[in-house]
Amino acid sequence: MEKYKRILLRLTMKNGLELKAPVTDDISRAVAFAIKWVAVGIAVSPMLYGMAKLIIAVKS
User: pTM for this one?
Assistant: First the structure.
């Protein structure tokens, strides 16, 4: 059996998202970019939902 390579993914307040993997820098940057945008989407969705509910309540 071949030895597996470790992938380290760490999210900190100081440095943001850190990705250490045995891949090229381009791939690791692309993965980090995608994960950041997914995290932003998850964070913004409840806010947009709340704004939509507020707009509906004001129009009613």
Answer: 0.46
CA 40 to chain centre: 6
Query: Count of CB atoms within 10 A of residue 5's CB?
Result: 8
Which DSSP category does 22 fall into?
S
- pLDDT per residue, tens digit, the chain (60 aa), is 456 667 777 777 777 777 676 667 777 788 788 888 888 888 889 899 999 999 999 998
**Which residue in this structure is represented by tokens 């707009």?**
55
Q: Which residues in the chain belong to E strands, given as ranges? A: 8-12, 16-20
The full DSSP string for 30-59 is HHHHHHHHHHHHHHHHHHHHHHHHHHHHHH
